[in-house]
Design brief:
about 0% strand, Tetracycline Repressor, domain 2, 12 helices, single chain
Amino acid sequence: MSQISVERSRRLRQEAPRAEILEAAAAAIAENGFHGMTMRALARSTGRGLASFYNYFSSKEDVLFSLQTGAFETLTASLKAALEDVVDPVERLYIFVLNHVRYLAEHRSVMRVLIHEASALPAGRRKKVRLLKEGYFHIVKDIVASIVAAGCRSPGAEGAANLDAAEVERVTYSVFGMLNWSYGWYDPGRHGTPQDVARTIHAVAVCGLVARCPHRSAQGNLERYSGAIAPAPLDRESARRVASNKRPSRPAKNV
């Protein structure tokens, strides 16, 4: 056996226990929350003694940090690889949606952890995770901007003249919202394959981005209802942003 093969085999032997621990941790955190998970219970669920468990992770924080960084690194790397030879922005958006839905379907507990435990890490590690999120977010934001700019080339379709940075950001967040929360309702037995879900979300996103329909043109008329709905009080930071007409400087924080 060559030296390269020996090194690869050794690396795989080292990585397999870590992957098993992270899988068990994702399930435990999804069920009990990060603060409800203990290292002792996690070690027991993976059939390891607590002492040997610390050979892989030194703390609960390390486990959570590895879960979050590993997820975003995997999502980003797989998306970049899938997009490599694809030029058309509508096709690129579908590839992103399908890549994300497939990951969600295969790692439902991890997705729950990403959504509900984003703030459980200390500031330094949250920053590292946030940078990974931002990189992933900006890939999708660029795709959305390309679709909005191109329009659908049909009569009355919106296009480049209506391209607005704030709107692109809002739409990108909305696409992520549809995707991320599908973990709460997606049941393969009822809703089909990841490809079925991806086609549905892709159609809603693309047609919403480029189509001009009577409902969209009449949206301005709906403003008359705004006075009948009492606004929720803003926290101090949100109030400051509204007053100064500034947008958040960290656009991918809540991906």
